[in-house]
Structure to design on (156 residues):
């Protein structure tokens, strides 16, 4: 079951603050600081999504690197076996190969989990932008808040 999509609030600005009305008819007045905090929350969610994306890419690189090193171990084991050097060295290489396989699996699992976090952060950011976008536009369009508009955009 999908959650309901975000519904935008309506907003007006006067000398007492930003007055917001929800679709349910509830009203609330936001101060300038609270409006700026809303923008910061949206920006933080976007920043977290970007961090998740780069972390996810790093995990995929680790998966590839682990697979390559495991393949290198396989070649090394074959060379050692061919030369008949010793069982201890072969055992150590096999253990390393096994650990690299576990590392690759753990990195893949972490990649999948991080992707879920990235999607959640992006969704939260978009939903907040939709829901509170009218507040930001009310601040920007209000003739009472020309200095506040400049401050608002400087904080964005």
């Amino acid at each position: 079951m999908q959650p309901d999509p975000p519904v935008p609030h309506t907003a007006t600005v006067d000398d007492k603050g930003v007055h917001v009305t929800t679709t349910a008819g509830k009203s609330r007045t936001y101060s300038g600081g609270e409006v700026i905090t809303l923008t910061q929350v949206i920006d933080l969610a976007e920043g977290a999504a970007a961090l998740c994306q780069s972390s996810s890419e790093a995990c995929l690189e680790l998966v590839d690197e682990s697979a390559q090193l495991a393949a290198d171990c396989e070649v090394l084991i074959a060379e050692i076996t061919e030369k008949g050097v010793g069982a201890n060295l072969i055992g150590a290489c096999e253990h390393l190969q096994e650990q690299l396989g576990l590392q690759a699996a753990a990195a893949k699992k972490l990649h999948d989990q991080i992707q879920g976090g990235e999607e959640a952060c992006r969704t939260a950011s978009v939903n907040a932008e939709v829901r509170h976008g009218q507040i930001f536009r009310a601040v920007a369009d209000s003739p009472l808040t020309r200095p506040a508009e400049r401050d608002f955009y400087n904080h964005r």
Notes: The first helix runs from residue 32 to 83. The beta strands are 10-14, 17-21, 27-30.
